[in-house]
Task: structure prediction
Amino acid sequence: MKIKITKSLYKLESVDIGIVHIGLGAFHRAHQAVYIEKNLNRNLGGNWGICAVNIRSNSKLVDLLKMNDCRYHVAEYTDSQHAHLREVNAIRDALFAGDDKEVLFERLLSSNTKIVTLTVTEKGYYVTPSDKKLRLDDPSIQHDIQSPAQPKTAPGILVEALFRRKKLGIPAFTVLSCDNMPNNGALTRAAVCELAAYRSPDFAKWIQDNVAFPSSMVDRIVPAMSDESQKRLQSELNCNDQNAVMCEAFGQWVVEDNFPLGRPDWELDGVQMVDDVHPFETMKLRLLNGSHSLLAYVGSAAKLETVADAVADPKFAALIRHYMTFEALPTLDMPDGIDVQHYIESLISRFANDSLQHKLSQIAMDGSQKIPQRWLAGAAELLIQQKERQVQQKNLSATALGVAAWILYTGGKDLEGHSHKVDDPMSQTLNELHTLHKKPENLICSILAIHDVFPKAFSEDDTFFQSVLTTYLTMTSKGVAACLQFDHLN
Ligand code: CS2
Result:
């Protein structure tokens, strides 16, 4: 095993906190914090240290990090023979702000806080996946409307912090979403403004006019840590750090350059600062994340465990090549100079990195929040185009297989009747539909009619419905292998 080791070069006293991050999980530690670590190393300190916060769960991680002065390690695996172990001190403070959020507000009101970054996952924005409107039926959002000074949700916290900053005459911080959603900046702005309007329409207008919400595309495969991966870090890298995270060597961050109060000189640390993130986000969401979700549901139905196990099977590799080439790529409009074919090839080799043990069950979580932007938005565009041009529908067979496998998965049982937990904010609705509709055609029809997930084009398209139904029936009667007839060259 070849191991490269990088240590922090700066003194901790030479770092001030300029960023508050909400959503302290493995992804933040392995992605954004590493870019900040590179920045602090290059500048030998500076004003862009991070205060990382959890608002709902995982107070334990906060305690563990604090016991070690927030120092931890990131193990970046190129493959099973090459790893880079990095010491990270970029997180200079960690907070758990559960019921009492005043310590968090202290940070958010500091004039040193210039940027607030978020990785709260898709469901943490409380918007309906299909139309991105605030989920007013959610009790936490209702709470934040009734008691805005004691918010529970991330949008509610941003509204209250901006309200207090405005009142105190402190310029608004910039809000940078780092979650896997298209137009994540505009989406965050819309959720925050919609919530703020309950306080006062003028205040919502003030946010609209005064707060920057740049979009960003984030990319790095970071499996959830397990006891097994901890043990591997100990034995392979001699790393005895209970806060360590493991990830792939690849990393990408494309950020819209709109930071009125300033920002780290990220372009010198490999961050791509651009005017328009949208094409990059769409490409990554539909190709990488879309393939991930496809492997997650179809692979789980085939009883596979990890992404690498799945792509090692030529039939699964052909499935995602087919999906990317014929069902996702035609929906992309990329600027000149981006070689999408090369990107597709690089994804296949990233997925094959078996040192990561990236579990399909991790990706399968929250499908109702993920598949709209990963598969359905692009597929709906194709369905509409095909209808308008009256051309025969083709090339949605991989998406139809994905949808059939997702529907199977949301029933909470695999093909042999073994149960699994369906971790999804819509699990109750989905479960009710599974209980109510015993006939596959009724079940599929009712699920395709959930407009919070499926754009209208789906419930109006009989060909797509038939394709999902046929695949579902084949899968349940003959098994997954019978559905994997993809030759990506056709
Ligand atoms: C994955 C992502 O869990 C998931 O849904 O598709 O976390 C994926 O690994 C990252 O977006 C890669 O950048």
The mean pLDDT is 95.
